[in-house]
């Protein structure tokens, strides 16, 4: 349990630290850190239960995207400010490093296996973001229709 708490603290600090590196407004840093933690927790729970890296990254990306939309509305800031730092804990840096290392060492089969993992993970995260944006568009459309119905009933 204590290792989970340490991981959560490290994920929060990584998200906030990346937010500082990319000059995120200071009033958005805490929210970006929490966004990263929530996405990583979903990823962690799914990896522990299912062990499927693609679905874990998809749902982690989806949660980050949805939380970013909510935080953007609450803070009246663009959602991308929360997306990018929240994404940092899910980035497949270890697999990318191993792919490049194996390419340099001439282990092409191993390198392509790692490269396939990188593409799979990045695609799953991107798909999660796309689904989150689709949910936003559906929400806006439903609000518009219900608002139009209320106005026409007057």
From TrEMBL:
<dbReference type="Pfam" id="PF12821">
    <property type="entry name" value="ThrE_2"/>
</dbReference>
<feature type="domain" description="Threonine/Serine exporter ThrE">
    <location>
        <begin position="7"/>
        <end position="134"/>
    </location>
</feature>
<feature type="transmembrane region" description="Helical">
    <location>
        <begin position="53"/>
        <end position="72"/>
    </location>
</feature>
<comment type="similarity">
    <text>Belongs to the ThrE exporter (TC 2.A.79) family.</text>
</comment>
<keyword id="KW-0997">Cell inner membrane</keyword>
<feature type="transmembrane region" description="Helical">
    <location>
        <begin position="6"/>
        <end position="24"/>
    </location>
</feature>
<dbReference type="InterPro" id="IPR050539">
    <property type="entry name" value="ThrE_Dicarb/AminoAcid_Exp"/>
</dbReference>
<feature type="transmembrane region" description="Helical">
    <location>
        <begin position="31"/>
        <end position="47"/>
    </location>
</feature>
<protein>
    <recommendedName>
        <fullName>Threonine/Serine exporter ThrE domain-containing protein</fullName>
    </recommendedName>
</protein>
<dbReference type="GO" id="GO:0015744">
    <property type="term" value="P:succinate transport"/>
</dbReference>
<keyword id="KW-0472">Membrane</keyword>
<dbReference type="GO" id="GO:0005886">
    <property type="term" value="C:plasma membrane"/>
</dbReference>
<keyword id="KW-1133">Transmembrane helix</keyword>
<keyword id="KW-1003">Cell membrane</keyword>
<feature type="transmembrane region" description="Helical">
    <location>
        <begin position="112"/>
        <end position="136"/>
    </location>
</feature>
<dbReference type="InterPro" id="IPR024528">
    <property type="entry name" value="ThrE_2"/>
</dbReference>
<keyword id="KW-0812">Transmembrane</keyword>
């Amino acid at each position: 349990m204590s290792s989970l708490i340490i991981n959560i603290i490290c994920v929060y600090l990584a998200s906030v630290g990346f937010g500082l590196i990319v000059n995120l407004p200071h009033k958005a840093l805490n929210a970006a850190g929490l966004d990263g933690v929530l996405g990583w927790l979903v990823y962690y729970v799914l990896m522990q239960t299912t062990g499927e890296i693609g679905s874990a990254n998809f749902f982690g990306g989806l949660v980050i995207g949805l939380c970013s939309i909510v935080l953007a509305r609450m803070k009246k800031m663009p959602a991308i400010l929360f997306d990018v730092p929240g994404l940092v804990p899910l980035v497949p840096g270890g697999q990318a490093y191993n792919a490049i290392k194996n390419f340099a060492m001439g282990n092409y089969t191993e390198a392509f296996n790692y490269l396939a993992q990188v593409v799979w993970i990045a695609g799953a995260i991107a798909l999660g973001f796309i689904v989150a944006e689709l949910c936003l568009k559906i929400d806006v459309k439903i609000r518009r229709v219900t608002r139009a119905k209320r106005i026409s009933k007057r």
